[in-house]
Amino acid sequence: MYIWFSKNCICKLWFMFCVLCLACRQKTSVSFLSRPDLPKLAYKRLKGKSPGVIFIPGYISNMNGTKALAIEEFCKSLGHAYIR
């Protein structure tokens, strides 16, 4: 199991992932994928090396949840691409 903290973390919650701290969340803008005759899909992208990771939310989960943000922070720490 990996436990990581952002280098810019200002919170002192050593027992929690720093992605729970609002100060540590990356401020990325939302992009939209247009599909003919279907609703647009919102996504956020972190550029990086291959292999990349794609987070597909499920039941009671979304792209701004703690799991999605924890995976993003992990990918960022390794330099891998990530889409949520």
How is the secondary structure organized here?
Elements: E1 31-35, E2 38-43, E3 45-46, E4 49-54, H1 66-78, E5 80-83
Parallel strand pairs: 4-5
Antiparallel strand pairs: 1-2, 3-5
Keywords: Hydrolase, Signal
Protein name: Abhydrolase domain containing 10, depalmitoylase
Signal peptide: 1-23
The fraction of residues assigned to DSSP E strands is: 25-35%
Strand order of the largest sheet: 3-5-4
Distance between the termini: 21 Å
Q: Tell me the series of helices and strands, N- to C-terminal.
A: EEEEHE
For the sheet with most strands, the description reads:
3 strands, mixed
Write down the overall geometry.
Answer: globular
Radius of gyration over C-alpha positions, nearest whole angstrom: 14 Å
SSE class: alpha+beta
Mean model confidence by pLDDT: 77
Count of DSSP E strands?
5
Keywords: Hydrolase, Signal
GO molecular function, one term: hydrolase activity, hydrolyzing O-glycosyl compounds
Signal peptide: 1-23
InterPro entries: ABHD10_acyl-thioesterase
